[in-house]
């Protein structure tokens, strides 16, 4: 039996941070960083059956072209992903009354749609990128025992060697992959694909410098020059690796799609980010509606 301090339920029986009951959640879950983006997604639904909110975690569940979908905001960063994915998993795989794991595990489809900075110069502003794999510069995966089951060891070894990472003064990331089956069902080969660097911050952890200097002047160049099986590090953001790690460990299918708002080589930023984000939302909903329930 899972103790009250570990599986924390609110007085209405909902899970601690997300404030959701098991029946509130669809098996297909879109995650976004920004709570307002939840409304931008659900306004395309045919109908919305539920709206709930606690802290930065806003959830709408509804139906889009016959498919039941939940969209939930995670807020920014991998620390929130630990909370969101564990609690989403608990909603479907733990019996809240008996406080035990259910016998037959359920697998959710998790689709992150977020914004990112483009690392490679050729990445066009407002274009979409699919993260086939991700390097996690957060430490989240290292806290979970079965990490070797989801770690892409070869990619990581090559990364360490090619970038001479030992000289960077920054801890080595972990490497994890997307769910290929889900990516194929969504037809993500139609957009540019590559490795995503998931960072633990927006400024120095993404090589930005306002008044503080990053530890390693060569940080972005090290990332830019890396390639594995013909795939380069395309973009920088703050959730994908943590989602892939947690989904992999818990048996869920996850993919991450990003819209490129910043070109970190040219220094340009999108002239119409809301329109670019809406394009990504429409693309994703359209692809999701083609997957059988
Ligand atoms: O637009 P979202 O989904 O929040 O994603 C990106 O934007 C935020 C930083 O501005 C980080 O969360 C990053 O991953
Ligand atoms: O450069 C960017 C833009 C959006 N989100 C990020 O994390 N980085």
What is the strand and helix layout of this fold?
Layout: E1 28-32, H1 35-42, E2 47-54, E3 57-64, E4 67-73, H2 78-93, E5 94-95, E6 100-101, E7 109-118, E8 128-136, H3 147-150, H4 153-162, E9 174-177, H5 180-185, E10 192-198, H6 219-225, E11 227-228, E12 231-237, H7 240-250, E13 253-263, E14 268-269, H8 273-289
Parallel strand pairs: 1-4, 1-7, 7-13, 8-10, 10-12
Antiparallel strand pairs: 2-3, 3-4, 5-6, 7-12, 8-9, 8-13, 11-12, 13-14
Helix pairs in contact: 2-7
The structure holds 1-O-phosphono-alpha-D-ribofuranose and uracil.
Protein name: Uridine phosphorylase
Organism: Aureitalea marina
InterPro entries: Nucleoside_phosphorylase_d, Nucleoside_phosphorylase_sf
Characterise this structure.
This protein is of the alpha/beta class and about 290 residues long. It has a single domain (about 20-290), classed as Rossmann fold. It is about 25% helix and about 30% strand. The protein has a 5-stranded mixed barrel. Strand 3 and strand 4 form a beta hairpin. The longest helix has 17 residues, at about 275-290. It starts with about 25 loop residues before the first strand and ends with a helix. The model has no long low-confidence stretch (mean pLDDT about 95). The chain binds 1-O-phosphono-alpha-D-ribofuranose and uracil.
């Amino acid at each position: 039996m899972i103790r009250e301090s570990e599986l924390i339920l609110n007085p209405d029986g909902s899970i601690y941070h997300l404030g959701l009951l098991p029946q509130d959640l669809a098996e297909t879950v879109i995650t976004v960083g920004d709570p307002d983006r939840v409304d931008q997604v659900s306004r395309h639904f045919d109908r919305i059956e539920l709206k709930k909110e606690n802290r930065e975690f806003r959830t709408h569940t509804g139906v889009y072209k016959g498919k039941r979908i939940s969209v939930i905001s995670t807020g920014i960063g991998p620390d929130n992903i630990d909370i969101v994915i564990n609690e989403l998993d608990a909603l479907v795989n733990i019996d809240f009354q008996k406080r035990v794991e259910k016998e037959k595990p359920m697998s959710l489809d998790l689709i992150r749609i977020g914004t990112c900075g483009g690392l490679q110069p050729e990445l066009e502003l407002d274009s979409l990128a699919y993260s086939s794999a991700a390097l996690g510069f957060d430490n989240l995966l290292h806290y979970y025992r079965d990490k070797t089951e989801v770690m892409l060891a070869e990619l990581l070894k090559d990364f360490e060697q090619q970038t001479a990472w030992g000289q960077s003064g920054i801890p080595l990331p972990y490497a994890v992959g997307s769910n290929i089956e889900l990516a194929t069902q969504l037809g993500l080969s139609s957009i540019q694909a590559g490795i995503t660097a998931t960072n633990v911050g927006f400024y120095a952890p993404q090589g930005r410098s306002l008044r503080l200097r990053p530890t390693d002047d060569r940080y972005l160049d090290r990332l830019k020059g890396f390639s594995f099986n013909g795939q380069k590090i395309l973009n920088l953001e703050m959730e994908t690796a943590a989602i892939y790690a947690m989904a992999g460990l818990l048996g869920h299918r996850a993919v991450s799609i990003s819209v490129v708002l910043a070109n970190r080589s040219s220094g340009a930023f999108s002239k119409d980010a809301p329109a670019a984000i809406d394009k990504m939302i429409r693309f994703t909903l359209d692809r999701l509606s083609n997957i059988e329930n």
